[in-house]
Amino acid sequence: MEEVVEIPVERTRMQRFWHLVAEQDLYEMVEKSGFGEYEFYLFQKRRMRNSLISTLAAAVPALLISPWLSLLGLIFFVYSWRNAYTKEKHEYNGLVYEKQISWYVFQRLIVTYLQDSNDSVIKTFRKLLDRLEEGEFKNNLYRLIIDITENPQSVQPYMHFAEVAAGGTDEARTFMTSLYNYTNHTSDSSIIDELSDIARKAMMRGIEDIRKHKERTFYMYPTKITMVNFIPMVGYMAGAAFDIFSRNMNNL
């Protein structure tokens, strides 16, 4: 069988521009969220459109007060452009957080089932499907069962699941590789003990991550309250500065 060589598609000038103006980790976030080039370009186009529209907010004060206030358009553009990235990163971090929690639960359950029964890994996966809630993780596990059934001797389905379900971390790859070895090469119970130790340590880290995540949300409330109070203050200071500037100009 001839090996299929994937020929990279050359990007257009506009596509290269969207990658050039993107943050370093933006495309990686889009990919790991389950999307591709099309969604990346769509996000960048929508981001540019909204940023350009935000610059129109500076038109009114520039026409009614001073042309110098048109510089606010640049500030509004930068803020809108950056804010779109910040929101995307926040959503991505939330997605990663949910994946981590699902992965910790998966590790704990798979080890518990293997310790308590003599079922094969594939049968244990099927049992897990009934315990998991509907969502991306359950769909990935269902896809894993199909891939293992079609390619029982291949390690690739296990590695792909580690990538899509846990972000391809070294820990996830090690865990899934051990499952593959247990299924195809040995039935040594010491592997289950090793997996149990990995799952236990991962669960402890998961509990710590949950605590930090909750604390981070709580710590942000004082900052948000402070920022709300700061906004009227900035408006008052800007108005006072403009009033002083106008009086000095009239006295010239």
Written description of the protein model:
This protein is mostly helical and 252 residues long. It has a domain of 112 residues. It has 10 helices and no strands. The radius of gyration is 27 Å and the shape is elongated. The N terminus is likely disordered.
Keywords:
252 residues, mainly alpha, 10 helices, 79% helix, disordered N terminus
Summarize the structure.
The protein has 252 residues and is mostly helical. It contains ten helices and no strands.
Shape: elongated
How much helix, percentage-wise, in residues? over 70%
User: Helical stretch count?
Assistant: 10
Average the pLDDT over all residues and give the rounded result: 77
Query: How many angstroms does the end-to-end distance come to?
Result: 87 Å
Rg on CA atoms, Å: 27 Å
Oligomeric state of the chains in view: single chain
Indicate the structural class: mainly alpha
Task: Give the tally of β-strands.
Answer: 0
The low-confidence parts are: 1-7
Q: What string gives the helices and strands in order?
A: HHHHHHHHHH
Describe the biggest sheet?
none
What is the percentage of strand-forming residues? under 5%
